[in-house]
Amino acid sequence: MMDQAFAALGRFVVRFRYLVVLVWIAVTIVSLVAFPSLGSVIKNMTISDYLPPGAPSIEAVHLALPFQNTQYASSIIVAARENGAMTPPDQAAIDRLEQLVRDMPHVKVVRDLSLSADGAARQAEVQADVPSTGTGAGAALVSDIRSVFGQVNAPAGLNFHLTGDLATTVDTLDAQQASQNAAQRLTYLLIIVLLFLAFRALLAPLLTLIPAAMALALSGPVIAGAVTRFGVQASSITEVVLIALVLGAGTDYGLFLTYRVREELRRGFEPKAAVARALESVGETITFSALTVIAALSTLVIAQFASYQSLGPALAIGIAVMLVAGLTLLPALLAIFGRVAFWPTSTSPRADVSARGWGRLTAGLIRRPAITLGLGVVLFVGLAIGLVGTSLSGFGDQTSGPAGADSTVGTTVIDAHYPASGQVLTAILLRFPQSVWAKPEGLSTAERELGDVSAMRTVLGPLNPNGVPVTVAQLTQLHDQLGDPQALPAVPPSDIGISAREYNAFRATGQYISADGNTVRFLAILKDNSSDPAAIDAIPSLRTAANDAARAAGASQNAVFSRNAFTYDILHTSESDLSHIIPIVAALIALLLSVVLRSLIAPLYLVASVVLSYLAAWGLVAIVFVHLGGSDGVNFIVPFVLFVFLMALGSDYNILVMRRIREEAERAPLREAVREALMRTSGTVTAAGMILAGTFAVLAVTAANEQSRQFGFGVAAGILMDTFLIRTLLIPALVVLLGRWNWRPSRLSQRASLPDIPHVSADQESSTNPH
Q: Are residues 641 and 503 part of one domain?
């Protein structure tokens, strides 16, 4: 049934080949011109966007809102002298710079902060009414501020830098865009080189790549439309991975078809008939290969973690576009160019394929299938042992920009001249049912309870706001006299009858008590102030301590607000998704494999083989990045996405090889069928695996962050192991060992070894039925 459908599609595409090409060109051009680009609709996600609404860290975000600057985007200008303390001309230059920035559009506040203790640096905070996403007016403002650094006639040796949240976001987006552009250029170059080596022809590589390139160009507007119309999520990493996935997988599907067209030409078919016959033969393989990827990616829509949601459906759309291109545009191009596509190699009828190189190796190994299978399992288990002694790591430092960026240099300068700024503070937030100004006794209780927590080195709060102790009675008296501390001016009025020391201490309580008096913030410096796994694992005990303090003080809500708390929640949300979605992905792909292979047994060991290569690839990432590279751990996103991609993409080669083995087993004994299938498909699988692995290896080299580098390396390593070990050695060995059981319950399982059916070579078949 399906073969007939693809045969009809092949005849249609060949007949209307020029129209098909013109439609693709027109649709792509119109979409690029008329619809928004993917980059224009991508949301710049914050850490809090990654978690589900009920996560403890999200509750902490809500409690911390009274203490956050949510109205304006903020940046920090830092000026530093290279050697020695600042001079009066230095100070004058900084004053001129602050005034220039103050006069810029969108700038609301330029607040001079302080001179460093060593007298060599000075900071100023800039608050502006621009988006904090790092795009549009925000990016323009960052550029404008940096452009005026050279307009203040600063003395030699005085350097300016712009850092802080907005500047860091802009620099990060710029680095990601540069990384994406470099990845796309290198990916195209790599694919073209590998295709030329595979085909040893001039046009075939380009014809194979064109549909993938057009699908990539069209995918952007299509995904953008899905984002704006249907709420599909997409992030900056979606764009980067889309390049590797669509170009890599699309080229693979192109290889499946183009190799088969060349094979049919060598059997004696005319070019147009060869294209139609090839699409009839491998159309189902290409379709189910793409469907396995689409199914695996689509399951990510049920993930709790937003990074997975932003990858899954968007990338599935890209693969769907690629599938349509592979079944229509590529056959049309091959039908137009015919034998010329493979020039200067010969496509004239030739004798049956000889057992050279890879064919001799695989034929030799499957004579001892048990030994081949055993050695392979030992190798993969050995690589998986690399996971021992490693753990998952979080986002890493989100406060610093890309290496070498101006914001990163500025952060380094601040840390060097303002050592206290390097302290990582953990906020303990308590929400009271009534204003603490009406019942302040809970403040002393909460401070005492938190001060007794062994994990805390120092606790700052409303009773110790700026190093000056304040009693509850003093705090109440000052509030009755002065009112809201957040509304007080920086300079005390002359007639209030309160010392400047007391005034400044009370005014400082504004950063610890919300304007309505219901929310109180305590800032703690922990004894373990790192982001190591042990510090992250300590978050539950810290939350328990905060809950105990809240209950003792009479607070109705409490939360811990810190980078480690976010990391802890993200790791556990990711692990939850891992445990729920992986079985669903495995079951879906097993179901699709059972349909396309007409077997209930083969999908079981094929899925098991992917799990084995997945664990080996994960272990290899741990060996390279953790044991040898010194990273804190394997990034939390890598195991999950690695499984989904390897399960989906590895199934492409499963389908190609196993369908060809089945095709050959229809007319030959099983061992000979395996040998013939491997000789027929080894070139396709090798070239496809090298190209697909190469596209992800480019991501590992060009990515702007370690998360993407680990992911790219892991997928590339897994695909290479799939290509050269799993699909072409271990699986064929297992097929030989299982014999007729491979095909149960289909009719082929009733034919043990077909001893009475002589083998008819491909060329003998073509001589009797060339058309």
A: no
